[in-house]
């Protein structure tokens, strides 16, 4: 059995959460190789949650030890991410094309989309499998086992969980609040898109922090996680639209180069642009609810 700190301490709760994520990464490895549905997504989520916990709970675990592992988890996410992102984009565009009325569907749009996806998906799939078969990935799995077998615990790990965990959750909330405030101060455009993407990543981390603390902190952490998820979801929709528009530009250019009409891709681009603008308009209200001081007061150590 893996040794650990005393029951009820910050270290015990953080390590239990990290073990869950390690187990999920290991469990999804063969599923990704077999190309099972949602396996890449689940493996990436577990790796992000683990990497995020290393940062959030830096007062519990020594970052000199966990930072290099976090970097390897980031690399895992990047190598698998290309395949997952292509899968999501293809489904998004396929649904968009099917939803277009005939009068707005000009040229061989289904065939163009199929050709675009097949070429990109084959390359992204090879990239994911090459990474999973690499010594680097095996070294990461060994490192995950090693850090949990002999965790680099700091003094705060031995304290009762309430105060260290609640302070960490609130710290990640404040980090998000700063990024939201900055993004809302900018005019719509590329700079704001980047700022909203940064805020999305911070919202994900704030949500994961609250999720990890829920076994120790109970309902206040659960309510905080739900609030952070609402912000993450809205900002995720916005970022998905930013990524989709970039890909649609490429599809339009390919179609034009082949002598096909690019009109339908332009229609989908305009719809994505409208979706992003809608999410930006909704953000202040969503953030107002998610930043309710009562949520944080309930978490106060």
Gist?
By secondary structure, the protein is an all-alpha fold. The protein has 10 helices and no strands.
Structure characterization notes:
There is one protein chain. The protein is 81% helix and 0% strand. The chain is an all-alpha fold. The chain folds into two domains: 1-160, CHAD domain; 161-301. Helix 1 runs antiparallel to helix 2, helix 3 runs antiparallel to helix 4 (109-132) and helix 7 runs antiparallel to helix 8 (219-257). The mean pLDDT is 96.
Give a topology summary.
Elements: H1 10-33, H2 39-56, H3 63-99, H4 109-132, H5 135-149, H6 162-184, H7 190-217, H8 219-257, H9 263-290, H10 293-299
List keywords for this structure.
301 residues; single chain; 10 helices; 0% strand; mainly alpha; 2 domains; CHAD domain; flat
Main β-sheet: number of strands, strand sense, barrel status?
A: none
* Portion in helices: over 70%
Total domain modules? 2
Helix and strand sequence: HHHHHHHHHH
């Amino acid at each position: 059995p893996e040794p650990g700190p005393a029951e009820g301490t910050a270290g015990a709760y953080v390590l239990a959460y990290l073990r869950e994520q390690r187990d999920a990464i290991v469990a999804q490895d063969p599923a990704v190789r077999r190309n099972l549905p949602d396996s890449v997504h689940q493996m990436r989520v577990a790796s992000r949650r683990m990497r995020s916990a290393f940062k959030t709970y830096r007062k519990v675990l020594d970052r000199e030890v966990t930072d290099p592992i976090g970097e390897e988890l980031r690399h895992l996410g990047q190598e698998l991410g290309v395949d997952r992102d292509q899968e999501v984009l293809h489904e998004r565009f396929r649904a968009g094309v099917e939803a277009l009325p005939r009068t707005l569907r000009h040229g061989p749009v289904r065939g163009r989309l199929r050709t675009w996806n097949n070429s990109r998906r084959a390359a992204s799939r090879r990239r994911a499998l090459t990474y999973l078969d690499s010594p680097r990935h095996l070294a990461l799995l060994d490192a995950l086992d090693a850090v949990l077998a002999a965790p680099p615990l700091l003094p705060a790990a031995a304290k009762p969980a309430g105060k260290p965990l609640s302070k960490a959750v609130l710290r990640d909330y404040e980090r998000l609040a700063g990024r939201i405030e900055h993004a809302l101060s900018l005019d719509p455009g590329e700079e704001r898109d980047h700022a909203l993407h940064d805020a999305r990543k911070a919202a994900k981390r704030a949500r994961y922090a609250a999720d990890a603390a829920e076994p120790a902190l109970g309902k206040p952490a659960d309510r905080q996680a739900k609030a952070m998820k609402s912000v993450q979801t809205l900002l995720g929709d916005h970022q998905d639209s930013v990524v989709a528009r970039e890909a649609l530009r490429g599809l339009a250019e390919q179609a034009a180069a082949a002598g096909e009409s690019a009109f339908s891709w332009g229609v989908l681009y305009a719809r994505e642009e409208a979706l992003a603008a809608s999410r930006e308009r909704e953000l202040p209200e969503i953030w107002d609810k998610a930043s309710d001081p009562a949520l944080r007061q309930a978490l106060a150590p």
